[in-house]
Amino acid sequence: MLATAQSGEDFQALNDDVKKTFRTVLSGISIESRLIELSSTPAAEFRAMPLNMIGVVETGLVSVLHGNTVVSVLEPGDLVLADTDFLPAGVGALLYGSESGAFIRAYDRDAFLDEIAIDKSLQRNWIRCIGQHVSLVLRLNALHIRETVGLGGVPEIYPVGSIIIQQGDPADDIFSMAEGLAEVLVNDMAVAKIRPGELFGTMAALTGSHRNASVRALKSCSVIRVSKDRFFELIRSRPSAVQGLLVDMAKSITELNEEVVSLRRKHGDS
Questions:
Q1: How many CB atoms lie within 10 A of CB 113?
Q2: DSSP secondary-structure letter at 75?
Q3: pTM for this model (two decimals)
Q4: Domains of the chain: residue spans and CATH
Q5: Is 261 helix (H, G, I), strand (E, B) or coil?
Q6: Alpha helices of 93-227 — where are they, by DSSP H?
Q7: Are 217 and 161 within 8 A, CB to CB?
Q8: What gap in Å lies between CA 8 and CA 29, rounded to an integer?
Q9: Alpha-carbon distance 199 to 175, whole Å?
């Protein structure tokens, strides 16, 4: 697993050990497998993994997408645990794709676990592998939080229905949606939605104007708040961050324009 935030030697050491343990487990499994090909894939065409699957990346690099954010990049030897059939209704699965193409060797999960159940040595190694994998994911999450919060941002929780940004207020902060779903309201009319991985509140903060829209939580939201000044530091120290900012701003403008056109048509029809 390649970290998508700056990592250290301990992350790499644990990553190598997860692969070693998983190889040990696979060496004791004799069930049939199949190859899943991920051809060169634009982000818009990333897909969820099949149901009832445990896999390993065989060749290439596999990007894992949550919302609009690549949360990890899997490399050969990495464990692939499909979450498609574990999620409650309304929760989107992680999506997988590859910029240059990749292959995943897939095993039927039930048959895989049945083999492990009859061998105590396999059981111990599988439990060790899952424990290491969870530890690795938690460390990766910590790296993302540290990178996002490193310039002064603090995670905040907003319950359903609460106001994250109020139209007309001064624009002193910029926000990043870590988890949840929110809607953008202009004069109490919904015009867009904000999903995990998206920045919001940027335009007013960057132009020095007051908030021209409100943002209200549609689901419980975990939000990173970064002061305007600290955000400018981020842009100066990491120019690559500007690309993501421009993409989010362009998306917001496009959605607002489409909503305005739609509203005009409705009023024209009436």
A1: 14
A2: -
A3: 0.55
A4: 9-148 (2.60.120.10), 154-269 (2.60.120.10)
A5: helix
A6: 109-117, 120-149, 202-207
A7: yes
A8: 33
A9: 6
Q: Are strands 69-74 and 163-165 parallel, antiparallel or unpaired?
A: unpaired
- Report strand pairing: 221-227 vs 173-179: antiparallel
Closest to 249 (Cα-Cα) out of 169, 194, 185: 194
CA distance between the termini of the chain = 55
The structure tokens listed for 191 are 């015009």
Rg (CA), the chain: 22
Q: Residue for token digits 């419980």?
A: 220
Give me the tens of pLDDT residue by residue for the chain, a chain 270 residues long. Answer: 655 444 556 777 888 888 999 999 999 999 999 999 998 887 778 888 888 899 999 999 998 887 767 777 889 999 998 787 777 877 778 889 888 889 999 999 999 999 999 999 999 999 999 888 888 877 776 666 555 544 445 568 888 999 999 999 998 888 888 778 999 998 888 888 888 777 788 878 777 888 989 999 998 888 888 877 777 666 665 554 454 555 555 555 555 556 555 655 665 555
